[in-house]
Amino acid sequence: MLRIALCQMRVVANKGDNLTRAAELIRDAVRPAGTPSSVAVTGSATTFRRFTRDEFGKAAPSGTPQQHGAGNMPVGSTTTKPEDRHTNAVTDLTTGPPTASATSTAQDHRTSTSGQRSSVVVVLPECFNSPYGTKFFAEYAEPLPPVGTTADRIDAKSMPSCSAMANLAKELGLWIVAGSIPEVSSSSTSAVAESSAPSAGSLRRYHNTSFVLDPSGTVRALYRKMHLFKIDTPTLKMDEAEVLTAGDAPQTFTVPTIGSGSHPSVIDTLASQGLAEEAAAKIGLGICFDVRYPQLALHYRDLGTQMIVYPAAFNMVTGPTHWELAARSRAVDAQQFVVMCSPARDTTAGYVAFGQSIIIDPAGGVVARAGTSVHDCGDECIVTADIDLGTVAAVRARLPIMAGTRRDLYELRFY
């Protein structure tokens, strides 16, 4: 079992305020059940009854309303209710040992609704530390450390976003997919082997980059957006390529799923017992416009992923018609979970995000999403769900699309 929490946060012009707000929402996402929230948000999230691994392909009971794919029926519950929210709290982002309250919070949240211990993955939106837009990327850009860097070795002065999230992941004992940030580097590669900090006299490049932190605060993955966003409509024009350099390498990371922290021996032990899929979730990374390319999702499927996470910031032009459609399409294509986390909608911003952070199951059904309609799906909120990874194998076994692939006629190849 894997618990997913999407923090649909409002992004403002001040980077420090954004880091504080991200930390507030992450802490709130893992607070013990029944504990009053200390974070004020305006929105709510809707959860749906989703099929179990044994239910896919079975007919629904007569008269049962079907919502957003097979076996999904609204249950009227919410993951975050406005009336549960209280005043804002100032969050301490300094390095320090885990507090008793923080430790108990993480331990409580690792117990899923089914009673099993589960790992927790919190996802932030695209450009969570910066307003979205080509004119902001260079100003807000930071270098990022190489994969394998521990929290205590991340320079807080030059890499404040990564440092803050690494220390928070370590304190709370959870995984953080840190949305994306504008990254500055002197390297053109996507798999950063060295620190991306540009040296004196080197050519600066900017990327839209996601980074992943494990429960020890160690950087486990860096992914640079491969497909840069471009739109040319009467109401919205943008071309990320004016400032950004595209990435060139897919990236995955593996999360133990049975309350095992980050120790790889747990995965090995369960795998030897034929429970590899129960032991760990292999997750692929994409960013926003990447979701429009089924080639990447299919490549991740071939790499053995069970989930793809897309921090994303669709807009009010494409969001209402394409957001959910794109997420469900990629889930059906690759028969795996798809997660998309958006910034909250700010109608005063130059670029207005659509919102509706969403979790899709391997059959294309909506597990949970922000809001109840297109009108309130952009409000700031937290969307959570417990994911049964066994559903992936069940769907693929009962609808064996991959087995019918005509590899004698065509192939998908990444160079």
DSSP strand content: 15-25%
Radius of gyration: 20 Å
User: Would you report the number of β strands?
Assistant: 17
Q: Specify the helix fraction band.
A: 10-25%
Q: Identify the quaternary structure here.
A: single chain
Secondary-structure element series: EHEEHEHHEEEEEEEHHEHEHEEEEH
The major sheet is characterized as: 8 strands, mixed
Spatial arrangement of strands, main beta sheet: 3-2-16-15-14-13-12-11
Q: Unreliable runs, pLDDT <50, ≥5 residues? A: 60-107, 259-264
**Alpha-beta classification:** alpha+beta
The number of helical runs is 9
Note the gap between the termini.
Answer: 34 Å
**Coarse shape:** globular
Mean pLDDT: 81
Structure commentary:
This protein has 9 helices and 17 strands. β13 (307-311), α8 and β14 (337-341) form a beta-alpha-beta unit. With 415 residues, it is of the alpha+beta class. The strands form 3 sheets. Strands 3-2-16-15-14-13-12-11 form an 8-stranded mixed beta sheet. Strands 1, 4, 5, 6, 7, 8 and 17 form a 7-stranded mixed beta sheet that branches. Strands 9-10 form a two-stranded antiparallel ribbon. The protein is globular and about 50 Å long. The chain starts with a strand and ends in a 17-residue tail after the last helix. The longest helix is centred in the last third of the chain and has 16 residues, at 319-334. Mean pLDDT is 81; it is low at 60-107 and 259-264.
